[in-house]
Amino acid sequence: MEAPPENDLCSVCHGVFNTPCQANCSHWFCGNCIMLVWDHGSALQPCKCPLCRRQITLLVPTEASLSQRDMPEVAEILDRVEKYNRYFGGQPRGLTQRMQDLPFLLRRLLRELLDPHRSLPLVIRARVIIAMILSGAYVLSPVDFIPEAIFGIVGLFDDLLIVLVVFLHVATIYRSVLYRRHGGS
């Protein structure tokens, strides 16, 4: 989604979204509200989502919010969101955090790849497509590290592992694009 659901309200202020931002857990908040949540916690750690308690390591404002940057109050909120992303968006994350972020990042990436009005850089688009083609070729090829004919269902493990690694790689590439686009250095 490029914007929060129409009938949804911010879970912090229970009001209509003002400068909406989507967290890496896919929940939506007012930009100012999620910054208040961060202010009430540790300034040295990312805040946790008020709904699912996952660490928020990336906040993505809507395109509509970015287009209103000339308004002083919106600009102030977006500057704080960019500062938050600079602090916590580039942090090394563990495998658990990457796995939790995977559905969010892959959904957004697929939407950007299919939308003709969005423009991912050509190099990023090429890397994503090549990674997916190579993983698909490996999964469909008869050459395996653990052959299915000998080990049965256990033989599918290497195929699933290759697909998982490729998806994690693609999500990491796209996360870096989002990080640079929305407040990264």
Describe the structure.
- The chain is mainly α and 185 residues long.
- The chain folds into two domains: 1-91, Zinc/RING finger domain, C3HC4 (zinc finger) (Herpes Virus-1); 93-185, no CATH class.
- It has seven helices and three strands, in the order ββαβαααααα.
- The chain has helices at 31-39, 63-67, 72-88, 95-114, 122-140, 148-151, 156-181, and strands at residues 20-23, 28-30, 59-61.
- A three-stranded antiparallel sheet has the order 2-1-3.
- Strand 1 and strand 2 (28-30) form a beta hairpin.
- Helix 4 (95-114) packs across helix 7.
- The chain is elongated, with a radius of gyration of 19 Å.
- The mean pLDDT is 80.
- It is found in: Endomembrane system.
- Its main location: membrane.
- GO terms for molecular function: ubiquitin protein ligase activity; zinc ion binding.
- Pfam families: DUF1232 (PF06803).
- InterPro entries: DUF1232, RNF170, Znf_RING, Znf_RING/FYVE/PHD, Znf_RING_CS.
